[in-house]
Amino acid sequence: MSALAVVGLGANLGAPATQIAAALAALRRDCACGPLRVSPLYRSAPMGGMAQPDYANAVACFPTDLNALALLDTLQALEAAAGRHRAGERWAARPLDLDLLDLGGQSLRHPRLCLPHPGIAERDFVLLPWLTLDPAAQLSDGHRIRALWQARGSTVLPLWAPRRQSANADQGADPGCGPDPAAAGHSRMMSAP
Fold it and tell me: So which residues are the catalytic ones?
């Protein structure tokens, strides 16, 4: 039986938009058993205070037949194929970062994976893109993504978000497709949608 996967995508080395687009194509090919929806691409400052380039970030949602650990294995294989090495510092720059944020509302505590992702509430670069995909999104603990976003006072900025289609479903691998944040009432500092 399929479950809705929510995956955060990020990159700040190489060609981030191209790497995220390639990862979206791989998610569609290897993980999704239905339409893949993707947020606009956003820019955010890196976590951890290390000097490094800003990140490009997006969130993708798709139904999958994979269980949580199989999906995690696939995400980590895609990161490795893009050149990510996990032996480095925790907040180091990376060519691709894929985080499993939620899988069908499951609550999971495993040595390799916690669901929902424990850092969601602190990551405006996850909250805003997720909110653009599903304004009513809610975690298994009852927290609504909108309320978490509104509590953040975020400084996430749009990287680009051209209006290319009226619908956001199964848009291909271009992470720039999606609703135009300016058209959704976002200010330059991205007030709550």
Answer: 84, 94, 97, 99
